[in-house]
Every structure is written in structure tokens, then in C-alpha cells.
Specification:
This protein is of the alpha/beta class and about 210 residues long. The chain has one domain: TIM Barrel (Alpha-Beta Barrel), CATH 3.20.20.70. The protein is built from 10 helices and 9 strands. The strands form 3 sheets. It has a 4-stranded parallel sheet with strand order 3-2-1-9. It has a 3-stranded parallel sheet with strand order 6-7-8. Strands 4-5 form a two-stranded parallel sheet. Helix 5 links the parallel strand 4 and strand 5. Helix 2 runs parallel beside helix 10 and helix 4 packs parallel to helix 5.
């Protein structure tokens, strides 16, 4: 896997996972993989995130692990050092994009407006994260911008559910969706990896 476009083809849903406990990293990754999901975005929202990425990279190599919620220049190198194989940002400042691009990893810069998408495209980024998807206009918004921006593809993330995911996946400019519903907090807290696997199986069949 060497390009952002290939990231979007790994699974119809990219799990967006918040891990508070490093011990959950490997079992949740294994459950997702058993369910047919081949990619995971671990968000850098908790102190456990980088160590979780490191464990998944080392112990579940068949699952492509990335670092999400990369919001600071320093996060880029930390993600690389932890073993992340891709990077996702919620927004796209010039400094952040420079730092992420310098890692050599495929990345999905976050945008939520036409101007932001055009600015990213000027920098050579044609595969983007659309965030926050539901709040920023949802599937109708992405459908409306396909005409003027046909060369861009998106991974919409934010507020998407198993019920709403199909309307996004039906769009020609959507490769996959980001979803937090695959790893609910109560399931992680209870160590209910079977439930995570069941949710992953359903998600893997959406496309």
C-alpha cells in the first residue's frame, strides 16, 4: 500500500477508534480483522494512542494501522515512530500538511468546504477526508461538489452510522466512510470482542 487511493479500497468502513487502554489495542484489532475489516485509524486523542498503534503494527500486521486526529506538526513524526502506515488529519493547515507529507506516508487531509478541497488539490492531494461529514452537509453536499470537482475522492467521517453509510458509499466520489460505531466504548470496556467482530462483519458487507 503506497497511495491514499489504495487506503480507500481496503474496506468500505475505516474504523475510527479511540483507545483509553493500551491492553485493548491488539484484541480490538484482531476482532476487526476477523470481521473482514482491513484498516484501522487510531485517533491521537488519548495518552494510550501511540502505544496502541505500536502494538497493533507489531502484533496484527495484516491490519493496516494509521494515526488519526493528527493536529500538530510533532504528531507526524510520533506517528511514524509508532509504526503508523498512514496519517489522517481533521483539517489541513500548510504547516501540518508539510510535516505530514515529509513523512512519506500516505495521508488523508481533512477538509469541509469546497475552497479547502481545492486548496488541498493544488498541493497534489486528491484523496481527502470530509469532516465533520454530517455536520458539514452530509452525502448531499458531497454529491453536489462531484460535478465541479470530479477528480477528488473522499472518506467522509463524523456522525456516520451503519444506517447512513450506504448513501455515502453509493456516491462516485466516496471510496469509504469513517465510522466510530464499530468499536463502541461499552464493548471495549467490557472486553466484548465478539460484539466488535459482529459490527465489523456487518460493516465489511456494506460495499
Amino acid at each position: 500500500m503506497t497511495t491514499p487511493a489504495e487506503l480507500l479500497e481496503l474496506s468500505p468502513v475505516m474504523p475510527v477508534v479511540v483507545l483509553d487502554d493500551v491492553a485493548h489495542a491488539v484484541p480490538v484489532a484482531q476482532a476487526l480483522l476477523r470481521g473482514g475489516i482491513r484498516v484501522i485509524e487510531v485517533t491521537l486523542r488519548t495518552p494510550a494512542a501511540l502505544a496502541a498503534i505500536e502494538r497493533i503494527a507489531a502484533e496484527v500486521p495484516d491490519l493496516v494501522v494509521g494515526a488519526g486526529t493528527v493536529t500538530a506538526v510533532g504528531h507526524a513524526k510520533q506517528a511514524v515512530d509508532a509504526g503508523a502506515r498512514f496519517i489522517v488529519t481533521p483539517g489541513a493547515t500548510d504547516g501540518l500538511l508539510d510535516a505530514v507529507a515529509a513523512t512519506g506516508l500516505p495521508f488523508l487531509p481533512g477538509v469541509s468546504t469546497v475552497s479547502e478541497a481545492m486548496r488541498a488539490a493544488e498541493r497534489g492531494c486528491t484523496v481527502l477526508k470530509f469532516f465533520p461529514a454530517e455536520a458539514a452537509g452530509g452525502a448531499a453536499y458531497l454529491k453536489s461538489i462531484h460535478g465541479p470537482l470530479p477528480g477528488l475522492r473522499f472518506c467522509p467521517t463524523g456522525g456516520i452510522t451503519v444506517e447512513s453509510a450506504p448513501k455515502y458509499l453509493a456516491l462516485p466520489n466516496v471510496g469509504c466512510v469513517g465510522g466510530s460505531w464499530l468499536t463502541p466504548k461499552d464493548a471495549l470496556a467490557a472486553g466484548d470482542w465478539g460484539h466488535v467482530e459482529t459490527l465489523a462483519t456487518a460493516a465489511s458487507r456494506l460495499r
